[in-house]
Amino acid sequence: MFILRELERGDIPAINSWRRNRALIASLGAPFRYIGAEIDEAWFDSYLKSRGNTVRCAIVDGSLSEDPLIGLVTLAGIDWVSRRATLHIMIGSQSNQGRGAGTFAVQEMLRHAFDDLGLHRVELDVLEDNAAAIHVYEKVGFKREGTRREAAFKCGRWVDLIHMGILSADY
Ligand SMILES: CC(C)(COP(=O)(O)OP(=O)(O)OC[C@H]1O[C@@H](n2cnc3c(N)ncnc32)[C@H](O)[C@@H]1OP(=O)(O)O)[C@@H](O)C(=O)NCCC(=O)NCCS
Fold first, then answer.
1. What percentage of the chain exceeds 70 in pLDDT?
2. How far is the CA of 107 from the centre of ligand 1 (A)?
3. Mutual orientation of helices 101-111 and 131-140 as an angle, nearest 10°?
4. For residue 14, what are the CA distances in angstroms to 27, 28, 37, 119, 149?
5. Structural domains present in the chain
6. Average pLDDT over residues 156-167
7. Which of 97, 134, 164 to probe ligand 1 with, by most ligand atoms within 8 A of CB?
């Protein structure tokens, strides 16, 4: 039912609407910013030039005839010497969360990282109060590796970031 495919230019309007959603961005480590369409066009152009160290995939729900694009999952900053990368994910609308797409997309991206790209380690940071995301990451094999104290300023307050990682041997 769910598939990953590479991000396309036509996906930008949906992603831009997600990035303008304060409630969604509140669950990410990154700060909320007002992001116009041109900025996301430039962001996509920059991705096309950095495919050597970034993988951006759309999460698609094939059972939805309207708006099958439901999320975005990324392996960013691939370091080909240490063979590690950072994972980011978002399911764009609340109605599509809790339906298994996040678990699928993280597992599929780990398979790509370890079985296709030969990476050794995938890591991420997650807000300490994002219990659903931490649950998904632990379920697929990520381990908590430390706390980055008050590393994120979110919605007017400081929040700890939990650093998590998974090695190819854990996978
Ligand atoms: C976090 C996110 C990627 C998870 O994807 P999803 O498709 O909603 O997750 P799934 O449906 O695959 O799985 C959710 C799991 O979390 C569990 N869960 C939900 N709320 C929870 C909570 N408050 N505490 C603990 N576990 C919770 C569910 O029971 C389910 O676990 P199970 O499969 O073992 O029953 C998605 O909700 C999302 O994009 N959220 C907003 C952005 C975000 O937080 N991104 C991650 C930033 S690090």
1. 100
2. 13
3. 40
4. 18, 17, 10, 30, 33
5. 2-167 (3.40.630.30)
6. 98
7. 97
